[in-house]
Design brief:
The chain has 5 helices and 9 strands. By secondary structure, it is α+β, with helices and mostly antiparallel strands.
């Protein structure tokens, strides 16, 4: 299936389910909808996305809202000597939304619970450029293909490196 054949709901479901399929920017700019970034309470990004989707249906502006995206990346951690792949937010406290901006929609989105506002100057949010959207979507897609290592060290933990034969005593505070 080509990226252009993905409906917004299918794209959201595939991203939420961990699929590496990312919507194309050509589809993102279609229908006069631009990408905007919403600032949310940190840790409530998924609740804001769900609330925004349900409010769009309830208040009748679902046709003006396209995709709602929470950019994540995959990281590989060592837990108990085993590699574990987990998801990490690329931009904690932010949600990307594709929409046709107008005063009524701006007001409805801003009044969504746990939304503090839009990224941009004053009362008029600034839409993302195609290059900015592409870089975010590309970063999300490449992280799914090649997860980043995440290193966590405990106090007084012995760490061995491959480049030198000696052990390094990790001093963490």
């Amino acid at each position: 299936m080509a990226d252009e054949d993905i409906t917004p709901n299918e794209a959201n479901e595939s991203l939420e389910n961990g699929s590496a399929q990312v919507p194309s920017t050509a589809a993102a700019v279609a229908d006069g909808k631009n990408w905007y970034i919403i600032h949310t309470y940190s840790g409530f990004e998924q609740k804001v996305a769900d609330s925004l989707r349900s409010r769009a249906q309830a208040f009748g502006f679902a046709d003006q809202i396209g995709e709602v995206l929470i950019p994540t990346e995959e990281v590989v951690e060592l837990r108990g000597g085993k590699k574990v792949t987990s998801k990490r937010l690329l931009y904690p406290g932010y949600v990307m939304v594709q929409m046709q901006m107008n005063d009524q929609l701006w007001h409805e989105v801003k009044n969504t619970p746990r939304v503090t506002g839009f990224v941009g100057g004053g009362n008029s949010p600034v839409p993302l450029t195609a290059d900015e959207v592409n870089s975010i979507l590309f970063r999300q897609q490449t992280s799914a293909e090649r997860p980043r290592p995440k290193m966590n060290f405990e106090k007084n933990e012995t760490v061995r490196t491959k480049s030198t034969p000696s052990a390094i005593h990790c001093v963490c505070w």
